[in-house]
Amino acid sequence: MTKKIKTIVDLRDELTETRKLKKKISLVPTMGNIHEGHLSLIKNAQKQSDYVVVSIFVNPTQFVAGEDFNEYPRTLDSDIELISKLNVNLVFIPDVIELYPMNNKISTEVSIPELESIYCGKHRPGHFRGVATIVSKLFNIVQPDIAIFGEKDYQQLLIIRSLVKNHFLPIEIISLPTVREASGLAMSSRNNYLTESERKKAPMLYECIKTTVNLIINGAKDYEKLEREAKLFLEEAEFKIEYYNICDSETLGPVQGKILVVLAAVWLGKTRLIDNATAHTYD
Ligand code: AMP
């Protein structure tokens, strides 16, 4: 039976008992509207640990003014049903006031100066500070041995790895590949916003990223030209591009290491899509 817990006090009581039994605890943070992408993280958590905590929390501080905080799909009943079917040990569903007890009158934030104002951070100012802050809170509350995140949110993953390293948190971060629809479209709660015709077009983003990766694998080295060509292709299909960049997989700066990442964020009508793929460089 999946336990449903709303408060930090109850969660800590439950986990104190779990720790006494020397169980390895994992955490899968989500904003709910559970889809196959989330389920793959949860199933992996079950393989790697003895006790799985899934959190569902639509975190207000990671939404920038004017974004979709109010519209974000909230489907708690069906989420809990899906999670319970997997026999997850505990689902943590706190209210906003539980995680922001001072109502942000006096707030404490985690910032990641080098990574929070580029790419998604540039277009969503404050977003990653919100993410790093909430993940830090969840890590402190749950104190998991392992935490699992999706590679779909590539920049977010690097930020969480930097949080763990810089703040000496004894948590192993595991990342898992993006789960996609048969069309190649990366699964995302925001795909709910797509109209029928947009849904048909949306897979072109990943096709374009794969083309860029294949050209690189086949020896293309002029990354700026590849970026320009990809943008042109997507613009012709009426995507609005926020960014489309080939960058170093570890720093997100210019490619220096052995692995690069193609990172992209685009708008299709009212829907913002992000996706990425990594590739080895052959220098
Ligand atoms: P979200 O609920 O969108 O905040 O995502 C919660 C976690 O699920 C994050 O670690 C995401 O990276 C991960 N995630 C979201 N979509 C996917 C996907 N399509 N495949 C794998 N993981 C995903």
Summarize the structure.
Helix content is 39%, strand content 20%.
For this entry, give a set of tags.
three-stranded antiparallel beta sheet, Pantoate--beta-alanine Ligase, Chain: A,domain 2, six-stranded parallel beta sheet, alpha/beta, 2 domains, 9 strands, Rossmann fold, 283 residues, binds adenosine monophosphate
Protein architecture, described:
With 283 residues, the chain is α/β, with parallel strands linked by helices. It folds into 2 domains: 3-176, 3-Layer(aba) Sandwich (Rossmann fold); 189-276, Pantoate--beta-alanine Ligase, Chain: A,domain 2 (2-Layer Sandwich). 39% of the residues lie in helices and 20% in strands. It has a 6-stranded parallel sheet, sandwiched between helices. A 3-stranded antiparallel sheet has the order 7-8-9, with helices on one face. Strand 8 and strand 9 (271-280) form a beta hairpin. It is globular and about 55 Å long. The mean pLDDT is 97. Adenosine monophosphate binds next to helix 2 and strand 5.
Please identify which CATH superfamily of the largest domain we are dealing with. Answer: HUPs
Approximate strand percentage: 15-25%
Global shape: globular
- Helix and strand element order: EHEHEHEHHHHEHEHHHEEE
Bound small-molecule species? adenosine monophosphate
Strand arrangement within the widest β-sheet reads 1-4-3-2-5-6
Helix/strand layout:
Layout: E1 3-5, H1 8-20, E2 25-30, H2 36-48, E3 51-56, H3 76-85, E4 90-92, H4 96-99, H5 113-116, H6 120-123, H7 127-142, E5 146-150, H8 154-166, E6 172-176, H9 196-201, H10 204-217, H11 223-236, E7 240-248, E8 259-268, E9 271-280
Parallel strand pairs: 1-4, 2-3, 2-5, 3-4, 5-6
Antiparallel strand pairs: 7-8, 8-9
This protein binds adenosine monophosphate (AMP).
